């Protein structure tokens, strides 16, 4: 069932989302050439646990071994941080942060370009991924059919010569990290409507060459099947009486 949250519960989700935003804002200063994704994970883990007295939601979630997801270049999502994975000038990296605080979750992600060198495609895919999220948020309001979110995203992305990953979606969030409703980012027929008090994530994943993906042997990391680039942006959003409120700030 789709959960409608009370004002008291919403305030707790807002607090978790604030920690997510603060963590993403903090870690951006460490995303540089020659740094490992394992070190990025270590910094976030210490910040979330020691400074924010919270819990990094991915850690041990269904067996996931790290505190954040770091998805570099052709990694679509669920990249596992490693001290052996070193960032290079011009790489793109998605940092996916989710936290648990006082029984409630917050969730967001952002894609960064590493260093000062980048090509046109890296800039384009990051821009289109972020813009598709922003445009989809702007249409949110009570009574909107959920299918309109994905329909808008796919049309915009395809019109710009890029591709939407269909296998992963946004979701309800609150007392659970993933709950109903599930928000597809592609054309779909979900006629459920948004209602005040619902809290959702929208998190389109955009590929450069095709929408097709493969899951690696570790059971978590997802890559493009053709080694094309992949970018993602995500916010947690509250549906209000009249429209929406963005709870994370990426």
From TrEMBL:
<keyword id="KW-0645">Protease</keyword>
<dbReference type="Pfam" id="PF00557">
    <property type="entry name" value="Peptidase_M24"/>
</dbReference>
<feature type="binding site">
    <location>
        <position position="171"/>
    </location>
    <ligand>
        <name>a divalent metal cation 2</name>
    </ligand>
</feature>
<feature type="binding site">
    <location>
        <position position="234"/>
    </location>
    <ligand>
        <name>a divalent metal cation 2</name>
    </ligand>
</feature>
<keyword id="KW-0479">Metal-binding</keyword>
<feature type="binding site">
    <location>
        <position position="78"/>
    </location>
    <ligand>
        <name>substrate</name>
    </ligand>
</feature>
<comment type="subunit">
    <text>Monomer.</text>
</comment>
<keyword id="KW-0378">Hydrolase</keyword>
<comment type="similarity">
    <text>Belongs to the peptidase M24A family. Methionine aminopeptidase type 1 subfamily.</text>
</comment>
<dbReference type="GO" id="GO:0006508">
    <property type="term" value="P:proteolysis"/>
</dbReference>
<feature type="binding site">
    <location>
        <position position="107"/>
    </location>
    <ligand>
        <name>a divalent metal cation 2</name>
    </ligand>
</feature>
<comment type="function">
    <text>Removes the N-terminal methionine from nascent proteins. The N-terminal methionine is often cleaved when the second residue in the primary sequence is small and uncharged (Met-Ala-, Cys, Gly, Pro, Ser, Thr, or Val). Requires deformylation of the N(alpha)-formylated initiator methionine before it can be hydrolyzed.</text>
</comment>
<feature type="binding site">
    <location>
        <position position="107"/>
    </location>
    <ligand>
        <name>a divalent metal cation 1</name>
    </ligand>
</feature>
<keyword id="KW-0031">Aminopeptidase</keyword>
<feature type="binding site">
    <location>
        <position position="203"/>
    </location>
    <ligand>
        <name>a divalent metal cation 2</name>
    </ligand>
</feature>
<dbReference type="GO" id="GO:0070006">
    <property type="term" value="F:metalloaminopeptidase activity"/>
</dbReference>
<dbReference type="InterPro" id="IPR001714">
    <property type="entry name" value="Pept_M24_MAP"/>
</dbReference>
<dbReference type="InterPro" id="IPR002467">
    <property type="entry name" value="Pept_M24A_MAP1"/>
</dbReference>
<feature type="binding site">
    <location>
        <position position="234"/>
    </location>
    <ligand>
        <name>a divalent metal cation 1</name>
    </ligand>
</feature>
<protein>
    <recommendedName>
        <fullName>Methionine aminopeptidase</fullName>
        <ecNumber>3.4.11.18</ecNumber>
    </recommendedName>
</protein>
<dbReference type="InterPro" id="IPR036005">
    <property type="entry name" value="Creatinase/aminopeptidase-like"/>
</dbReference>
<feature type="domain" description="Peptidase M24">
    <location>
        <begin position="12"/>
        <end position="241"/>
    </location>
</feature>
<dbReference type="GO" id="GO:0004239">
    <property type="term" value="F:initiator methionyl aminopeptidase activity"/>
</dbReference>
<feature type="binding site">
    <location>
        <position position="96"/>
    </location>
    <ligand>
        <name>a divalent metal cation 1</name>
    </ligand>
</feature>
<feature type="binding site">
    <location>
        <position position="178"/>
    </location>
    <ligand>
        <name>substrate</name>
    </ligand>
</feature>
<dbReference type="GO" id="GO:0046872">
    <property type="term" value="F:metal ion binding"/>
</dbReference>
<dbReference type="GO" id="GO:0005829">
    <property type="term" value="C:cytosol"/>
</dbReference>
<dbReference type="InterPro" id="IPR000994">
    <property type="entry name" value="Pept_M24"/>
</dbReference>
């Amino acid at each position: 069932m789709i959960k409608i949250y009370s004002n008291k519960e919403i305030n707790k989700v807002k607090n978790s989302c604030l920690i997510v935003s603060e963590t993403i804002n903090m870690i951006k200063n460490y995303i540089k050439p020659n740094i490992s994704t394992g070190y990025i994970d270590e910094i976030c883990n210490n910040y979330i646990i020691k400074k924010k007295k919270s819990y990094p939601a991915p850690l041990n979630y269904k067996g996931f071994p790290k505190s954040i997801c770091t998805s570099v270049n052709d990694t679509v999502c669920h990249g596992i941080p490693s001290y052996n994975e070193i960032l290079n000038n011009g790489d793109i990296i998605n940092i996916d942060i989710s936290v648990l605080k006082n029984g409630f979750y917050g969730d967001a992600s952002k894609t960064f370009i590493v260093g000062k060198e980048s090509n046109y495609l890296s800039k384009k895919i990051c821009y289109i991924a972020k813009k598709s999220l922003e445009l989809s948020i702007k249409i949110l309001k009570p009574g909107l059919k959920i299918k309109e979110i994905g329909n808008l995203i796919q049309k915009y992305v395809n019109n710009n010569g890029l591709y939407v990953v269909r296998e992963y979606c946004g979701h309800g969030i609150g007392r659970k990290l993933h709950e109903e409703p599930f928000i597809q980012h592609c054309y779909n027929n979900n006629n459920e409507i948004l209602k005040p008090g619902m809290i959702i994530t929208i998190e389109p994943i955009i590929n450069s060459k095709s929408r097709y993906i493969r899951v690696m042997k570790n059971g978590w990391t997802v890559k493009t099947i053709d080694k094309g680039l992949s970018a993602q942006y995500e916010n947690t959003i509250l549906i209000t009486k009249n429209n929406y409120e963005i709870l994370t700030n990426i």
